[in-house]
Each structure stands twice: as C-alpha cells, then as structure tokens.
Amino acid sequence: MPDTHEPGGEGEFVILPDCAGALAPTAPGTEVLATHPSGRPLLVGVLHGDRLLVSHAPGGTVAVLGFCPVDRPLLETRLAGARTPADLQKAASGLPGSHHAVVSSGGTVRAWGTLAHTRRLFYDSGPTPVLASNRADFLGVGTTALDETALALRMLLPGVPHPLSDTTMWRGVRALPGDHFLELTPDGRARTGRRWSPPEPELTRAQAAVLLREALSRAVHARVETGAVVSCDLSGGLDSTPVAYLAWQRAARLVALTLTGLTSEDDDTGAAVRAAGHMPGADHRLISADGLPHALEGLFDTRPRHDEPFQGLQSARFLELARLARSAGSRLHLTGHGGDEVLTAPPSYVHTLIRQHPLSALNHLYGQRGLRRWSVRQTWQLVSDRRSYGAWLAHSAQHLRSPMPGQWRIPPPLWHQTLRLPPWITAQAAQAVADALTDAARRARPLAETRTQHLALENIRTSGRIVRLVNQLTAEAGVQTATPYLDDHVVEICLATRPQERSSPWEFKPLLREALAQTVPSGMLQRSTKNDMAEDVHTGLRGQRRRLASLCDDSQLARLGLIDAEELRQACLAPQRPGPLPAALILTLNCESWLRGRASPSHRTATGVTVPGRPRP
Q1: Which of 154, 166, 306, 355 is surrounded by the fewest CB atoms within 10 Å?
Q2: If you ran DSSP here, which 8-state letter would residue 404 be given?
Q3: Which helix (H) or strand (E) holds 227?
Q4: CB atoms within 10 A of CB 393
Q5: DSSP state of 520
C-alpha cells in the first residue's frame, strides 16, 4: 500500500473469497479489516479516511466501507433474520451515504459499490480464486497486460459509452456496473447479478422536492462531524452554494473556497460573496487563479495516482485546493459535482414526452430548440429516431472519423452524444475502437427503457467516475472529496422525477429551487447563469503550446501505435478554435500522461498482499 499521503480519501482494499489460499497482509499499514464467518480474511487493506462498520450477524458478516450515517445497533437491527447472502444483501441495500458494501454468508461473498460509480469495484477473470478490489490497478498491475483498445476508447469524444465504460486498462480486469452486485463463490469463481433498476419517473416536482430536501440535507449534515472543520467549494453556482450552506449549518467551522479570475466576465465571484454573506462566521477565501497551477498543469505531472486516465483537465488545481483545505484544518471537502447530472434531464426527454404528452412536448421542444440552437433537421432527427440502442452503437461505429460537430450547432443527443475520434488517432486504433463498438452493439442493452433515463444514468456515472479520480488525487493531501448530489438516495429521487419537471428550457434547475426554497435563503437560489470555463481552457492551451507539444516527444501512445505523434504535435501548436477539438486534445494528453506515470519507477505496486500462485510485481 502507498504511504505517500496522510489519512484521508477513499480506503484501498481487496475482497477475498472464503476458500483455501486466503491472502495475508504483508505491507506496512495493511491489515485485515474484516473476516469471514469461517475466520478467513474477507477484507485486506488500508482505510485512510474511510469509516468501517462491521457486523457479525447470525447469518454472516456485513462490512460497510466509506460514508454511511448508520451505527452498528441500527445495522444489526436491519440484519436481524437475514440468513442467506441474498437476505444480507437485501438488508444492507438502501443504506444511506456513499460506500462499498460486502456481505459473507455460507462461504459466498456479495459486494457492490454506488450507482454513480463514485465507489467502484473491479474483479479479475484470471485464474481462481477470483479477487475483487476498489482499485483496478491492484488487480491488473504486474499480472495482466495493458488493454490497448481500452486505452484507445479513452480518446473517444465525448466519452466511452455503455457498456464499454465497464472496461479497465488491463485485460482480464472488469469493472462492476453500479447497478450490479459481484458474487464470489466458495470455489473461488465469480458471477454478477442485477441489484437495482431505475425507477419509473412518476414523481411530480412538488413530490420530489420534499424527498430531495430531506435526502440532500441528510447527505450533507450527516457528513459533518461534531466539532469538525469542513471545507467546501463556493463557486457561486446553484450546485455548490446550497451544499455550502447546509454544511455551514452543522460545521464548527466552514472554510469556503472560491476561485476568482477564471474568466474575463466572471460573475461567479460576486454570487459567491453574496452567498457567503448569508453564512456568518464562515471562513470565506477568495483564491485567485493566478496563484494556482494553470488549468493544464496536471498533464505534465506523471505521478501515478489513478487506475485510469484522468478525465478532466484541472487535476493540479484539485490537488492544490486540497492542500489549502488541509492547511486550514479540513479533512473533508464538499463539492457540488454531480448537480448538473442529477438535477437536469438530458434534452432527449422530448423524444419520450412527444409520444406520451404531445401538446406539452411541443412547448418543451420549441424551448429546447431555441436554447440549444438546433436546426430544423436536427430537431426532427431527435424526435423521429426509432433505432434501438444496439443499432445506434453500430451506426456510431461506422462514423467515428467523420468531421466533428461545430461549436454552435452540436447535434442533440439520441441515445448518447455523437461519438467521434480525434484526427490524430491511427487507422489501426480507430478500427479497434470501431470493432469494440460493433461487438458491444450485438449484445448491448440500454441502462433504462427510455433514452432520457439511459443518458441520465450515463451522465451520472461519468460524473461519478471523475469524482472518484478527484478523490484519489485529493487523498494525497489527506482530504476526502464528498459529493452529496451523487449519493444513491439523491440519485434515485431525481431519476424518479418526471423529466419535464426536473428540467425545463424556461427555468434553471427548478427541482432544486423548489426543494430548498424553505431551507436555504432565497438569495442563494436566484442564480440562473453559469460561467463558461472555455476561456480558461483556451488560455491554458495558448500559453502551454510548446510544452504540450513536447509531450509528443517519445510519445508512449505513439509507441503503442495509437496516435500519430506528429499530427498531435501540430494540433498542440495550432490555434485552438471553439469547438470539441480542445476537449479531444485534453483526453488524449491525459492518456499520454497516465501511460508515462504507469511506466515511471515510482509506479505503485499492488496492495501489499501476496496472492498464492500469482507473482507480485
């Protein structure tokens, strides 16, 4: 286990089957966190900033790792009468918070993470016994080969679609979907099963607002320990501001961080200052962007922190802000990440709405078209398309190298946003991605019955995966990043709300406004704009052209045959125009940076446990 950071951040662990050849901790700081009823090790690892709740119920052992505002007596009450793995799973499901859950009964283990992928599980498909972990690299490094197709998929814009998003960087290592459980059998094998299905979106806004108010308040309040110093983002936006206020209600001291000077037309700072005025005693700190690493600095830092390429562009800033929060005494940093994804429905909701409520749909369609500048042709395509998800994937595979959409008329999402590969990817790599999409299309099933629910879940999972990587980053500073909007209970409530009442072209996040109208000062909920961070990105690209181009020297991606290094270099040096190419550039350079970190001498080893019959790296 790494010992480079203070206690903080998500723990790191391996789940072991209840069979002969159980692992034993060998690295300093690594310990047995929970045992099977048989006495064999069940969980081996390090907790860092996570909480661990273990109950040895009559039916077996239940372990909850992460944030869960439930004490042992209440957990044991829930588990009373549970005798089988399925019973224990049912009893342990639905616990509030953000955590992993592991149950062991009768030699069988069942485990799962979160719906939003903020807490993930991975498992290998190699020789038995099958192992599971919350870090893909613990299973992959030193034992299996790099999956070059999975790496090429990470360069796909705007992201990797379901079900290929469950691939990892290592062959033979799979990610468990958030709506599934993993079962490890007594003979050391593994299978998966569904544990959750998306709810029918039947709640009115008024009904959902009551539930959301309670769930979001609990998600924030329960995280703030008595007497603790807590930090938070206070961007001035409608997502982070209510979270900051709810934290201020409970924290002994709240340190609110606001970045300033990110754009020339910055109206975030004024909104944040006004919000801070509603929180007497809060330690509000205005932090100039000039005093932080620039937006692209993390691309040049190849220290191995992540088990997949980072998906954003501000990794160095996240780490520096975490250090500032830690220096102020905070070990928990609350953010509004995920708010956009859970509080607003994808505009594809009009595809379903026009078939259910045509008159109402026309109003929404008119508004969405004007808001998003769709052409008549694009609008008709959105409402008339009847392809299955598999057919859409197969069609996308055939057009990956078509020109990227322009800035002003980005096509509306059908099952997903339009998929494109950057121009510097090689023909070989592009074919591998196309083949992977074509193969997935033959068996793919959408995440939900309607396009809106499917894409909403896709967006929520993407946000959760980014948050998970941010948490891996901030853990190095001893700070855990928490995202209350992505807790299972909050996600479920928002998905259960009618899309046309969760989202509207005429109102900005109406569900959140109604939910917190009686809880948060009205002045905090008046914001109806959102700063465009594109200026910050383009400033970074302009200022770092030559340094970015230097990453093409001895490119690891080029060595693997995935990109044309010279074409990427020219893209780095060329003026960056508005549109999707800067995002594609950043995705590719994140892959390059991750590969370099993986190859560096400081690359982390496995968990510090010895796997019988498997060589340690």
Answers
A1: 355
A2: P
A3: none
A4: 26
A5: S
